[in-house]
Amino acid sequence: MSKFLQEFKSFAMKGNVVDLAVGVIIGSAFNAIVSSLVKDIITPLLSLLLGRINISDLKFTIPGILGSADIVLSYGAFLQAIINFLVIAFSVFLMIKAMNKVREKFHVQEEEKKEESPAEPNHTEVLLTEIRDLLKEQTQKSEKES
């Protein structure tokens, strides 16, 4: 049983799972913001066009057969969900577009930086260059002496 718990702990503490959890939490908060935007701003503006105060209250009632309860189709709530989806999808599209633009700009700046300044030689390269130069000097001295 302890091996199972260790495996679960290892799985739960991996970066991807934590990132996913953070994404779900932020997504929930974002959903609340978008729902408020749709409910408190967009829906009242649409109500001016439709002549109704609240879209989510739109419904179609089918009378019950032989005294049974009426069937109510709440298509207004469905329309509200569609509007929420469209606003969320558009917002995500704008965020991804902005992130791609920033990433592209950062990538271009990195490429320019690489092109502008040649890389500094590391310690090993410096030592090898010194050894090469010393060997050249010794070869030239021995050729002059002979």
Sheet with most strands: strand arrangement: 1-2
Shape: elongated
Per the CATH scheme, the topology name is: Non-ribosomal Peptide Synthetase Peptidyl Carrier Protein, Chain A
Low confidence ranges: none
Distance between the termini: 82 Å
Overall pLDDT, averaged? 81
Name of the CATH class: Mainly Alpha
Describe this structure in words.
The chain is built from 4 helices and 2 strands; from the N terminus they run ααββαα. It is mainly alpha-helical and 146 residues long. A two-stranded antiparallel sheet has the order 1-2. A hairpin with an 8-residue loop joins strand 1 and strand 2 (71-73). The termini are far apart. The mean pLDDT is 81.
Write the layout of secondary structure elements.
Blueprint: H1 2-12, H2 15-50, E1 60-62, E2 71-73, H3 75-116, H4 123-145
Antiparallel strand pairs: 1-2
Helix pairs in contact: 2-3
Defining traits:
single chain, 146 residues, Non-ribosomal Peptide Synthetase Peptidyl Carrier Protein, Chain A, two-stranded antiparallel sheet, 2 strands
Could you provide a short overview of the structure?
This protein is mainly alpha-helical and 146 residues long. It is 77% helix and 4% strand. The protein is built from four helices and two strands.
